[in-house]
Amino acid sequence: MRKTLLIGGGGHARSVIEAMGPDRFAGYVALTPAPVPLSLPYLGSDVQAVDEFSPDDYDVHIAIGFDAHGTLRLRSKMIEAYAGFKAPALIAPSALVTPMSTVGGGTAVMSRAVVNRSNVGCHCVINTGAIVEHDCHIADNVFIGPGAILCGEVTVGRNVFIGAGAVLHQGLHIPDSTVIGMGAVVISSPAVSGTYVGNPARLILNTNR
Prior knowledge:
Helix content: 10-25%
Oligomer: single chain
Low-confidence stretches: none
Strand content: 25-35%
Structural class: alpha/beta
Shape: globular
Number of strands: 22
Order of helices and strands: EHEHEHEEEEEEEEEEEEEEEEEEE
């Protein structure tokens, strides 16, 4: 098995190592060494690594969540920067991905997560204990937080963040670049991209303006 470079040195990177096992990874790259040491060797800057490591020798996995500004922009930037590298899907041993499901390259299905007869795009995160029920369609770079539940036939656009413990009613459509807050209960499809919180979820920030 080819070794994988882990891109990122924060809490999500530590979670990926724990879920998938350290033996899968050659080491990690980040702007600076992780303040809390990772159980992998630090191999240098994630920016320099694009040039210093060859796609012929290494795969990559983008292990970055929200950035300091509360967005997925840094994650998106790293996905684009490492587009020339192969990024295999990572599925934790305790996760359940049913045979009729598809999971795109670079996606991490974390411990005890469930993907049931659904299509998940590239570079997504189905975090610890999250449930993606039947016939969902998840686009690229979607981060689904721990314990979140998509109740079936939910379509999620690109670059969407769904917070921990959020619940999405069956059959919804979530626009690109939307944030669903932690614990939100979404009972109708959001009309515009933005940030939605509460029960029932309501728009608090319209990013289309």
